[in-house]
Write a structure and sequence with these properties.
There is one protein chain. This protein has three helices and six strands. The chain is elongated, with a radius of gyration of 16 Å. By secondary structure, it is an alpha+beta fold. The longest helix is centred in the N-terminal third of the chain and has 15 residues. Strands 1-2-3-6-5-4 form a six-stranded mixed sheet, covered by helices on one side.
Length: 142
Amino acid sequence: MIETTQIIEPWLYATLSEDPTLAGLVGDRIFGTMSPGMLQTPYVVFLLTSPRDIVGVGGTRISTDNLYVVKGVSQTNSWDVLTPIANRIDQLIHRPGSTMLGDSGGSLTCIREMTHQMPEIADGLPYRHLGGVYRIRASADD
């Protein structure tokens, strides 16, 4: 099983896209791994930045330990638009206790390790990114 594509990313997308509060802030503009080109902002995107398998005795894979950036992005000169988006993302996915996932046959924990804050200029326009870097441990129920 590839836990990032079969457990974590489906959970992230479902958790973020099914929340009415977040939908009120970004509509249906929630994307995994890569957003499709220039988008209407604000939007939410999540990106896998560091995957690692946790291996036990005899080479048995126990789980995966992954870092994901989960953030809001907006064309703006201010953090004001993104602050409620980043706060809502954190309220939805920061889960230090184990979450059992019935459909995927797995479980996960998700903890924010640090904030992610980045201004940029793209095509002469100001953009800001605000969210967090989350450590997500996932395992399949084999």
